[in-house]
Amino acid sequence: MSDNQTAPQAGGTDMGLITYICFAAGIVTGGLGAIVGVIIAYVDSENVRGTWKESHYQWLIRTFWIGLAPYIIGGILALILIGWLILIPLFIWYIVRLVKGWTAYDKKQPIAKPDDLLFG
Questions:
Q1: Domain residue extents for the chain
Q2: C-alpha span between 86 and 20 (Å, rounded)
């Protein structure tokens, strides 16, 4: 098997795709989907080590942890309305990272700079 492919998951399930779906679901579940997604990324990361999918798990894990503090702070401050000045840019940043990552994943391409703070 080449470096660009991984062994199929049990039952043919693509856990990377499921992880992206969980992160997208996090938008409408108040972050719960992203929590499930980051757990999947941590658990399944050993199975994709050394493949193009590894960078996607790094990307998603960083997206979760970088976004967590602003999400909590913005959520608390939203009670006095100023939190929206944090939450709106955070939402845009999150969407851009999901679209960029999911697009590359669909093309079976690694994320060029998975450790990048902004957009890789």
A1: 14-46+53-106
A2: 23
- Provide DSSP, 34-78: HHHHHHHHHHHGGGGTTSHHHHHHHHHHHHHHHHHHHHHHHHHHG
Per-residue pLDDT reduced to its tens digit, 36-86: 999 999 999 999 999 999 999 999 999 999 999 999 999 999 999 999 999
Closest by CA to 41, choosing from 66, 22, 24, is 22
Q: Give pLDDT, residue 120.
A: 63
| % of the chain residues with pLDDT over 90 | 81
Nearest to 68 by CA among 112, 109, 28, 34: 34
The rounded distance, in Å, linking the Cα atoms of 76 and 52 is 37
Q: What is the DSSP letter of 78?
A: G
d(CA 14, CA 51): 14
Instruction: Report whether 93 contacts 118 (CB < 8 A).
Output: yes
SS3 114: coil
